[in-house]
């Protein structure tokens, strides 16, 4: 079994918790309150800006051309998606440029992005890309899970289609192959650190949706 297949199996309970989260159930049937989606999408644009930085650092750290190409391309796409969110979803859901600029990251968003920045700053390439992978893989699984049960029409159809798109699945496969290669070349200590980074980032994925569902802000 490949390293990625094994860690994917290990986090099966986390994945089940994600797929069962009411944010995603309501997004699929179209009943998710617009205010919750607005909260999510503004936070996601803040997230993607920071995620792009983590990808760019992964590109800089990559030991081979395949990694440099994949992560620099990923950094570019994350910035493009962030801009597309501004243009399409922000317009559709009535998020003004002023609101987007004035919004601070929530604890869940800042926790996730700071965690990835920390991996990028002080940890190995192997650990960093293991922390980067759930962003791809979890969304691909969510997209594929939701698409067949999504109501039609659905105000969130464009979001669902983005993450159920074959191109997103292909990008996930390529990043997975890079993580498998890094794990195959690494020792047991590094592999254990990769396992932890993958699990931690997946937990933050759950927290990100949960935080939007509860429209969480800072307690003080
Ligand atoms: C929080 C989060 N994780 C993953 C993705 C997928 O790109 C996203 N847009 N946002």
Q: What's the number of extended β-strand segments?
A: 0
Look at the structure and give the CATH class. Mainly Alpha
Output the structural class: mainly alpha
User: How many helices does DSSP assign?
Assistant: 11
- Quickly count the domains: 1
Ions, cofactors and other ligands present here are: 4-amino-5-hydroxymethyl-2-methylpyrimidine
Helix and strand string, N-terminal first?
HHHHHHHHHHH
Overall CATH architecture: Up-down Bundle
Low-confidence stretches: none
Which fold name fills CATH's third level, the topology?
A: Heme Oxygenase, Chain A
Task: Please state the overall shape, judged from the principal axes of the Cα atoms.
Answer: globular
Report on the biggest sheet: none
Instruction: From the alpha carbons, calculate the radius of gyration and give it in angstroms.
Output: 17 Å
What portion of the residues fall into strands of 2 or more residues? under 5%
Mean pLDDT: 96
**N-end to C-end Cα span:** 47 Å
Relevant CATH superfamily = Heme oxygenase-like
SSE topology:
Elements: H1 3-10, H2 12-19, H3 22-29, H4 34-61, H5 65-92, H6 97-102, H7 107-122, H8 125-146, H9 157-164, H10 166-185, H11 188-213
Pathway: Cofactor biosynthesis; thiamine diphosphate biosynthesis
Keywords: Hydrolase, Thiamine biosynthesis
Catalytic activity: thiamine + H2O = 5-(2-hydroxyethyl)-4-methylthiazole + 4-amino-5-hydroxymethyl-2-methylpyrimidine + H(+); 4-amino-5-aminomethyl-2-methylpyrimidine + H2O = 4-amino-5-hydroxymethyl-2-methylpyrimidine + NH4(+)
């Amino acid at each position: 079994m490949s390293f990625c297949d094994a860690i994917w199996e290990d986090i099966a309970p986390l994945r089940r918790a994600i797929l069962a989260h009411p944010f995603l159930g309501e997004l699929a049937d179209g009943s998710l309150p617009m205010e919750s989606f607005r909260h999510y999408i503004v936070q996601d644009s803040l997230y993607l800006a920071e995620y792009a930085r983590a990808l760019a650092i992964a590109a800089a750290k990559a030991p081979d051309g395949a990694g440099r190409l994949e992560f620099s391309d990923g950094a570019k796409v994350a910035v493009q998606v962030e801009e597309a969110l501004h243009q399409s979803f922000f317009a559709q859901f009535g998020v003004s440029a002023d609101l987007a600029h004035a919004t601070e990251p929530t604890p869940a968003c800042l926790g996730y992005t700071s965690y990835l920045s920390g991996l990028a700053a002080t940890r190995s390439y192997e650990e960093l890309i293991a922390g980067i992978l759930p962003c791809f893989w979890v969304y691909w699984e969510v997209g594929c899970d939701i698409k067949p049960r999504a109501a039609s029409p659905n105000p969130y159809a464009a979001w669902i289609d983005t993450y159920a798109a074959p191109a997103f699945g292909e990008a996930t496969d390529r990043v997975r192959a890079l993580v498998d290669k890094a794990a195959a070349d690494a020792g047991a200590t590094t592999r254990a650190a990769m396992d932890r980074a993958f699990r931690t980032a997946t937990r933050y994925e759950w927290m990100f949706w949960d935080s939007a569902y509860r429209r969480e802000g800072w307690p003080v």
